């Protein structure tokens, strides 16, 4: 009687027999679909791929994210470009990664982000401005963490074309470098 009561609360007026019959039919269909799916997927324990060299199974290169590196690059993207959308944040994150890969900069994400210490001059203005570095906008922080994860595992196309430097369009740096692009309110350079 419990099923009939529940079905009635959902707007169905079924008696116990019809409700039980419908439930059995649905369960039978689900079980059949599961069995059909399992039959069509080769077992990982089978030896068929070893006996036939023509069968190649793709191996996914799944990288484990270094949570400290993820946090560091997410902070840089959040504080430097949180108002620039995904492309702007990805551009800032790409500069961090490009620096890690360049011999002129430290070889870890966090060392690049914190280069120069907490007093000016530093590489990223949010780090040495004397203010709290704790993110204040939950949604943007979550987006930064997610984008940092993608950047560190899948390495999407670099929208900065290999930039190692950037600045806000509202500032004029004392140095001259080759400009690679402008994204949002930032100009990027090599």
Number of helices: 7
Order of helices and strands: HHHHHHHEEE
Uncertain parts: 1-23, 29-61
CATH architecture of the largest domain, by name, is Orthogonal Bundle
Widest β-sheet, arrangement of strands? 1-3-2
Give structural attributes.
190 residues, mainly alpha, Arc Repressor Mutant, subunit A, 2 domains, 3-stranded antiparallel sheet, disordered N terminus
What would you note in describing this structure?
The chain is globular, with a radius of gyration of 27 Å. The protein starts with a helix and ends with a strand. It has 190 residues and is mostly helical. The protein folds into two domains: 2-51; 67-189, Cell wall hydrolase SleB, domain 1 (Arc Repressor Mutant, subunit A), CATH 1.10.10.2520. The chain has helices at residues 2-9, 16-40, 48-51, 67-81, 85-100, 109-113, 138-153, and strands at residues 165-168, 179-183, 186-189. It has a three-stranded antiparallel beta sheet with strand order 1-3-2, covered by helices on one side. A hairpin with a 2-residue loop joins strand 2 and strand 3. Mean pLDDT is 77; it is low at 1-23 and 29-61.
């Amino acid at each position: 009687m419990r099923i009939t009561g529940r079905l009635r609360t959902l707007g169905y007026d079924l008696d116990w027999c019809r409700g039980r019959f419908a439930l059995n039919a649905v369960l039978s269909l689900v079980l059949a679909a599961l069995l059909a799916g399992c039959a069509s997927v080769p077992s990982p324990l089978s030896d068929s791929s070893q006996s036939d060299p023509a069968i190649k199974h793709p191996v996914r290169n799944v990288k484990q994210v270094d949570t400290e590196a993820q946090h560091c690059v997410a902070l840089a993207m959040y504080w430097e470009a949180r108002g620039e959308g995904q492309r702007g944040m990805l551009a800032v994150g790409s500069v961090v990664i490009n620096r890690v890969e360049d011999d002129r900069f430290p070889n870890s994400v966090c060392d690049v982000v914190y280069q120069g210490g907490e007093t000016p001059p530093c590489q990223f203005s949010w780090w040495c401005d004397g203010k709290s570095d704790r993110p204040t906008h939950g949604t943007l922080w979550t987006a930064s963490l997610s984008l940092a994860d993608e950047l560190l595992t899948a390495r999407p196309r670099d929208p900065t074309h290999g930039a190692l430097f950037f600045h806000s369009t509202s500032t004029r740096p004392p140095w001259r470098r080759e400009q690679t692009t402008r994204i949002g309110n930032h100009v990027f350079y090599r």
